[in-house]
Amino acid sequence: MARRREQGKAVLCLGIESTAHTFGASVASSRGEILSDIREVYRPPLGSGIHPREAAQHHSKIAPKVVCEALRAAGVRPQDLDAVAYSKGPGLGPVLRVGATVARAIAANFSKPLVPIHHAIAHIEIGLLTTGLKDPLVVLVSGGHTTVAFFSKGKWRVFGETEDITLGNLLDAFGREAGIPHPAGPNIEELASKGRRLIELPYIVKGNDVSYSGLLTAAIKRISDSRLPDLCYSLQEVAFSMMVEVSERAIAQLEHNELLLTGGVSANRRLREMFAKMMADRGGESRAVDPKYSGDCGAQIAWTGALAFSSGVSEPLGDSEVLPRWRFDEVEIPWRRG
Amino acid sequence: MAKGMTLLKKGAEADLYLGKWYGMRAIYKVRVRKGYRVPQLDERIREERTAREASLLHEVKLLGIPAPCVYNVDLRSKTIVLEFVEGSRLKEALELGRPKGLPLFEIGECVGKMHSHGIIHGDLTTSNILLPEGGGMALIDFGLGFRSMDEEDMGTDLLILKRALGSLHHERARAVLRRILEGYRSAVGFADKVIEKMLEVERRGRYFPER
Q1: How many domains would you assign to chain B?
Q2: ipTM of model
Q3: CA dist list (Å): A191 to A175, A178, A243, A265
Q4: Alpha-carbon distance A72 to A78, whole Å?
Q5: Under an 8 Å CB criterion, which residues of B touch A?
Q6: What are the structural domains, with CATH classification, of chain A?
Q7: Is A197 on the interface with B (CB under 8 A)?
Q8: Angle, CA A326 vertex, CA A321 and CA A332 arms, to 5°
Q9: Which structural domain, as residue segments, surrounds residue B100?
Q10: CATH number of the domain to which B69 belongs
Q11: pLDDT by residue (tens digit) across B38-92?
């Protein structure tokens, strides 16, 4: 309770994340304090991808425990909350519906406003919070998104993006074919650190966009005749260089001097190093989201929910259907100027 | 080499200097080393693009499409020496809102001619279409270009152009694109198929509700 009093008039928001593998819950304040962050991750069997129905069953089973733990760790009772935020999309329909159902139940039971949050916007906001950057170019790299974006006139605008699969998809799909356990990203990074020889792979930049599907096919073909560390090393170098290149185009054209790297893949140290080098060479700076919050988590939803609710964003329970294909450049951002 | 030259622009990929080539004003386009890429990959990409840009510039000129002359290529220093074309970029002309007199039909026609001969520009933004002082238009920056007769590659080229117009007011962007596509249709027999592909590639982008 002492904690609650310190908040003064700050808004307290419970956030529920449920778009893919992770079910997460967190309490955050509109002052930028993350009071708790609890998550459970569905792990598919080796060699297979996420099964939406099984992930949904996993999430519904652990949801009550995760939410209760998040409240307890924050020292907050449900009635103390000002709002309940949930990831409305994009993501896998059956999985999204679990999160929405949990959020609706809590909101209805305790008569709290429901706040719809776009999952990608939340990756950006938690990145801005933990880096302290104000108006950077944003590079969002995860399983669901691979986008270079900038803020203008009330919305995030896409400068460039992947034309097919995301960087997270590329790493996951390659990992499955190569027998690398999930989550593939960190395991590929570890293998790549032992790679020495650069295997020639297609490097595909189209204007401001990247395309990874050809790179994936080519890398899979080389599994049988290459040392796995060399192949992981080459895959990372090519895929990451493509991403840094299109980001540098954005930096040059839009004349930003700060860059925010966020999303699950931003935890990769080699990727961070490449972005830092590119920005330093241009006299700017690149910062990455705190690795604690780079992957999907409740904290990103709780914090963005606190921001959104403070600007008057909420929705009636009846409108709380999920949007599996929601694009983030459609979302109005009333809490950000520029 | 950079002696007596003035740096015009530090682009994302290359530095542009204004200098002389046998007494003529010339652009030196130097693809600089990128520290974030491992040297072997960096070397390969810079060399590929330098060579490709020079040969495609030469080829489109043979098709009668205005583009700067290539005076010299040096693959070791990744440098191309190009004719200096005085004028503005389509991007600036559109932003200034100059309503009439833009050679939009001609731009479409030239892109069409290029496509029907199997050349894809690869970076067809409004910054890479020049409006020379003497009139007409010229295409530059073929570093991401390649050869293909695949309608999807052509559609992707048009999509890049369409997106580049996205910063304009909606109605105006549509009118500009419509005029450019009229020119394109006049040069490409299978234009409708390419435009269909353009829309298909656009929809393939992630999270389009109508997909």
Answers
A1: 2
A2: 0.89
A3: 11, 12, 21, 16
A4: 10
A5: 10-13, 34-38, 40-41, 44-45, 122-125, 127, 144, 156, 160, 163, 201, 204-209, 211
A6: 2-123+296-328 (3.30.420.40), 124-293 (3.30.420.40)
A7: no
A8: 95
A9: 87-204
A10: 3.30.200.20
A11: 999 999 999 999 999 999 999 999 999 999 999 999 999 999 999 999 999 999 8
